[in-house]
Amino acid sequence: MAEAFVGGALLGAAFGEAFTLLHDTVKSVGSKALMSNSIVKNLASNLNDLASVVEEIRQLSEDLDLPEEETKSLIEKMNKAKELISEWSKFPWWKRLFKGNHGKELTSLNEEIERFCKVVMPAQSRRDGLKLLKEFSIQTEKIRGLSCSVPRPPDFTVGLDVPLKELKTLLMKEEESLLLLTAAGGCGKTTLVQMLGHDEEIKGIFGEGNIFYVTISKTPNLKVTVQRLFHHVGVQVPEFQSDEDAINHLQELPKQVGSNPMLLILDDVWPGSEPLLEKFKFHMPKSKILVTTRTAFPRFSFTYNLKPLNAEDAMALFRYSASLKDGTSCIPDEDIEKVMKGCGGFPLALEVIGGSLRGQPAEVQLSRVRKWTNNRFIYNPDLLVRLQSSLEFSDDEVTLKECFMDLGSFPEDQRIPVPALIDMWAELYEPDEDGINAIANLHELTTRNLANLVRTSKDASKINNYYNEDFVTQHDLLRELAMYESSQGPEGQRQRLIMDISGDTLPNWCTEQDQQFINAHLLSISTDESFLSSWCNIQAPKVEVLVLNFQTKTYSLPKFVDTMDKLKAFGSCTIQVSDALPNLMEINIDYCNDLVELPTGLCEVILLKKLSITNCHKLSTLPKGIGMLVNLEVLRLRSCTDLSELPDSIRSLHKLRILDISDCLSIKHLPKHIERAKLWEPIKQDLTNLEVKVAEKNINLSWLLKS
């Protein structure tokens, strides 16, 4: 048989055949015979446990890198053991003892088979994981947020146990399939439906895999929503050409989840979305749909109204948010009661006001509380006005306030990548090469309940300053507050200008003159799918950071980008950047689904210090002349799953400090000078500032599951 071994396929097949013959022989001796000898009994048990693993080795043998000599030796031993046990089984029971060398051979064989399987299959499991990860990312490359799983509710909640019970009772009524959960913004609707989605009784009824959660927001995208639902159940669907096309597919969704009913939670649905709800209700008649909204919709009468917290629960949440212990607060009870009245039982207001007191000296706490209680705006019926009156930063927290307002520059209900914030704030405020200042500000905003820093990377505790997989979220009311704070004064004089374009309707202020001058340092532009790139003529010479969020398939950058002489941080790459943006220092491109290659002209932007291209799954090559970027310090290529190689010229990037190619699953070979971490030492003689960090090997799909 030894002469027949040719390649991994035959080797794996021969191993599987020898194992099967041995296994069949052992099984054929019968249970009574096994009981008479512990060695054979242990071997039989082990063979039973490993049978499925060996079958995988047989099926995957073409892709396995089997150790040839060890495999051949093991096959020969299994063949010998088969003959030995076959002869042994014919003996009378009182002679069925393995002594001397035969007993040792079988014991050794037992251990060797187990060790072989443990060595081969983990390596294959990693390859399978990488293959699965790549296939999964290719299927989902057009969907920014894949997961429709219900997010975990906050660790601390009060006053929602009774509403949860009542909501469950209404939801299970057979006569209605769609239930509205209504309440003003900041009242706790999202927290309540998150609790419901993780309730054991609800999971028992629907099944954990049949509970879907989607945030709809002010400008819903039906095609993306339906695509997300299908991807969540592992079904690949073509890109929908229209809303009608998406709806036609929607009725097939319940067939993909088995016999259990579905629960679809649509969070943050705005007025005007009633037709969308009608379509979901009509095409999913046997499913339950739970909708959260700030206002009731007349055509849907089945409604549950969530009330604000009562005084006792409001006090508990405020004390928790402010870290005030009973009997130890320096704030008089009558002042706290005024704060409670001003918050009106709204959890968001209680958390924000309480968070601003957390960790502050007693004098600061007392001073802030007295300012709020003397401010007539805290009793305004509009919660946004109350929040604005409670937003207070000290004189040495000017940068922190600016960072809070910057968060409003990103689209509603989207996760904001931490690396983008680090790069942006380093340009706008102070140098921050390792991101420490930015992370400190994000932690402070999180402590004050003004934002939420989510750390997803397992390597975060092991590799200092590794934030590439982390992101920031923000309550939509707080985003509105950040935008409100940024919108004070005439548009042309604002330091931060946000353009939210619907269709081809541009803001009035930018069309009033042939050339509109703006003073902003940060410009944020968002468009919807119907925008046709009809730009106005803006003069923006002071813009340092440009944030772009284009949803249309075809687009071009506005010509006024040419006038941005101070632009340093940029979010796209669709023009001849070397000519238009010669002073550009940073480019950050994330989830650009149609980016296949970078323009060669990019290599002529010699002042570029940071180039971050992440989650661009179609990017296959980098310009060969990338080594011309002699000032490049950071090159992030994380999760560019089709990127196949790095150019040899990367050796010329003498200032390079960070090279991130994590989850670049198609890179099979690195330039010969940088193949392994231990071989980086010679190249570090040229790249003197380079720090090499090896992340723990981990097949993790969480980086794809972002909304």
TrEMBL record:
GO MF annotation: an example: ADP binding
One Pfam entry name: NB-ARC
Domain (RPW8): residue spans on this chain: 4-155
Keywords: Plant defense, Repeat
One GO process term, biological-process aspect: defense response
Family: Belongs to the disease resistance NB-LRR family.
Protein's name according to its UniProt entry: RPW8 domain-containing protein
UniProt-listed InterPro entries: Apaf_helical (IPR042197), LRR_dom_sf (IPR032675), NB-ARC (IPR002182), P-loop_NTPase (IPR027417), Powdery_mildew-R_dom (IPR008808), WH-like_DNA-bd_sf (IPR036388)
